[in-house]
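Entry:
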Amino acid sequence: MSRTLNPLPAALSLAAAGVPVLPLRRGKVPFGNCPTCTGNACGGRPNMKTPGPCRCPGVCHAWAAATTDPAVLTSPPWTSAWHRAVAVAYHPGGAGLTVVDLDDADAIAWARTALPATRTVSTTRGEHWIYRGTMTSHNAVRPGVDIKSRMSYARWLGFGTGSATALPDAVRALAVKEPSMARRAPQSLTAPRRGHGSECPHRKPAYLERGIAMAEQRITEASSAVHATVYRTFLAVLSTHGRCGCLTDAHVNRLFTAAQAKGETARHCTDAWNNARTTLGL
């Protein structure tokens, strides 16, 4: 892979446009953990999927390190990383985007018949189709197709052609089967619900809607300690609905949107959500 010319200026330009960026080293992979975070000693999860509570100022937590802050991007240890970088990557979810990564000609042919047109960026082997809106990232949702949004990164390959359109249900549907199975897996850990058998009472529209609306209101009305309020609210929602498969991407997006309206970044939202899940053992 050839080295991207002047990766830092390109990164700063993207950051100024509100796109969280990070450097990639040879192999199109993020930089590894710093000595403090080696082996996820800071509390991060394996493979740098989520950062630990250390709030490391470096670039060693992959997508979670992506930032739009020029002061961070141009200060040590980031400057050293940019000097060795071969490309610029960005966090699609942090920019409010979802990337459908099409790896080959067959995947592209499928997308042209199955998905609405949107902004398209050519890649080495295929194309990135970029939509406005976020969702959970998933790999191999079908042959040659990955979804990159929250908790993921994509290589920056230019602005492409066309205009980005709203994230369609057709893309969300690609990830429905696998996430629903994953969410229901821990259900055996909960006590049977009297009078419902295997039915989940939270699926009643009024109950679930009221819970999400109350969580949004709690975040929106926070006048101080917003970080703590967001975390406690996420914890409360997950403690009630996190083990039964009720929560959908739409519900999570509502909570993240409320938090970001109070000044939280996408990274802070993701951190709080994952920390709440870890606390509850989900």
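The beta strands are 21-24, 87-90, 97-102, 119-122, 127-132, 138-142, 145-148, 154-155, 165-166.
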